[in-house]
Structures are given as structure tokens and as C-alpha cells.
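Service request form, structural biology core

Requester: graduate student, group of Dr. S.
Request type: structure prediction, single chain
Budget code: on file
Notes: please return the result as C-alpha cells.

Sequence provided:
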Amino acid sequence: ECRGVKILSQLGRLLLIVNTIQGLIPVDTEPSRKEKSMQSDKARFCDKVAIVLGVSNENSIGGAVAGRLIREGAKVIVTARTAEKVDAVASKIGAVGEVCEIADERQVGELADKAIERYGRLDVAVNCAGLALMGYIDSTSEEVLREAVDVHLIGPFFFIKHMARVMESGGAIA
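Core staff response, request fulfilled:
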């Protein structure tokens, strides 16, 4: 029965991002160890340049990733689909904000080029763009499905393609 099949793509994406972040950014559980690591973590991403795509608010996964990278010394460019959202987050966390639609290859390519123009390099690129699609498959419109494919399949292809194009050896894309 179609009604029993729910679209849970966001949950799978969240788990992938969390696992990636855990590998990229260590999570400390002991307070004394955390205090020690905070001193060394400040230099961990010092002089590194990062792009975090999909930072619609400070409390999103992208917002958390960007904030952590900044606290650890990185220069960060954050992106969202709308200027008002990205500007609000960027000013609050101390990042540079850029508008970027992940499914628009031209915009993604320009974003990669802006990192090079502004900082001369790109070391880390994290894609946190996603749509929360919860509902029944038989009531999902073609328009919603196409938007999901753009954001979760086509866009990440463009993201990897253009971030890798400008990165030097040793960069990381998540």
C-alpha cells in the first residue's frame, strides 16, 4: 500500500552528514579533554578556507558546521537560497554570506570562484543543503519530486564538480 511508504530522505541525509562531520570535526565528551582540545582546535583550521552550503539558519546542521569551523580558525563562506537568510547567519557567526541555489550549476561554479577570488584557496567544502520531505508517496507531486532530485542529486554533483575544480591537493569535500 502506497500510504505506508513515507519519504524519509532527510533522515538518511542527516545521518550521512553527522557521520561525515564526526570524521571531519572531532567530538569531545570529557570536559577536561575538551578544554585541552579547544586550545589546539583553534589552530586546527587556521588559515583554512571553507564553504558551507545550505546554511538557512544558525541552528541548522550547516549553521553548526560553519560555526564550529569558524571557532576552530577557518575563514568561512556560508550560503543559502535567499539573501536575507544567509546575511542574518553570516553576520551572527562572523562568516561571509553568498546566495547560492545548489541546483543552478552557474551559481555553484561562481561560488567556488568567489572563494578563490576572496581568499586565494579553498580547503574544505561541506554540502548541508537539503529538503525535509515527509509524507505519503501517493500524495507527492511531480514538482516536489523534481525539486528533491535537484537538491539531493543534481546539486551535489555540481557542488563536488566545482569545489574539486578549485581545490588543491589535500582539500576535503563532505
